[in-house]
Amino acid sequence: MTNANTLLLQAESQCHTRGVRFTPIRRRVLELIARHGGGLKAYDLLDKLSTEHAAARPPTVYRALEFLIEQGLVHRIESQNAYVACACPEHAHGFQLLICRHCGYVEELHLDEISDQLASRAKRQGFNVERQTIELQGLCQNCLTTNESSSCQ
Q1: End-to-end CA separation in angstroms for the chain
Q2: Residue 43: which domain range?
Q3: Is 138 found in the same domain as 69?
Q4: 152 annotated among ligand-binding-site residues
Q5: What CATH number does residue 145 fall under?
Q6: What is the pLDDT of residue 153?
Q7: Do 8 and 73 fall into the same domain?
Q8: pLDDT band at residue 2, thresholds of 50, 70 and 90?
Q9: 112 and 85 assigned to the same domain
């Protein structure tokens, strides 16, 4: 897992290269998400931001999230209505998320062949894919090991 400081530096560089503004609020939202590790809901972000910025309101958070998603810096976890930092923002293709149903850990995969196959099949059927979300839910290695240990006793 890439550390939050590295992600923030990558984000600053990417935004500068693209000529888009990486405002302090956008930066802080990305930092909060990146430091959290698992999925973080918009209202949890708002709670954290409002302690630092009295003017923080839901539209502020949602606009920042929209920007971060558009720039490929954050992914929305559809099943949880939560957000996670993109571990590989320079990667322009599809992604898949492994989500631990016990601890909330999220890991990003880049199996381009799966994304390409799905897009190709959709195209053959006359469908234009605009967004693709693949979420795999189960137990991470730590929770799996913990569950196996506790069931053995």
Answers
A1: 32
A2: 1-90
A3: no
A4: no
A5: 3.30.1490.190
A6: 47
A7: yes
A8: low
A9: no
Q: DSSP labels for 85-149?
A: E-S-TT--S--EEEEETTT-BEEEE--HHHHHHHHHHHHHTT-------EEEEE--HHHHHHHHH
* 117: amino acid identity, one letter: Q
- The tens digit of pLDDT for each residue in 18-71 reads 999 999 999 999 999 999 878 999 999 999 998 888 778 999 999 999 999 999
100 is in an annotated binding site: yes
The DSSP-derived string for 1-33 is ---HHHHHHHHHHHHHHHT----HHHHHHHHHH
d(CA 142, CA 87): 20
In a shared domain, residues 113 and 152: yes
- Rounded to whole angstroms, how far apart are CA atoms 76 and 97? 10
Q: Do the beta carbons of residue 76 and residue 133 sit within 8 Å?
A: yes
pLDDT digits (tens, 9 = 90+) for 89-100: 776 667 899 999
The answer to whether 71 and 15 have CB atoms below 8 angstroms apart is yes
Same domain, 14 and 64: yes
Residues 40/30, Cβ–Cβ less than 8 Å: no
Is there a binding annotation on residue 88? Answer: no
Residue 86 counted as an annotated binding residue = no
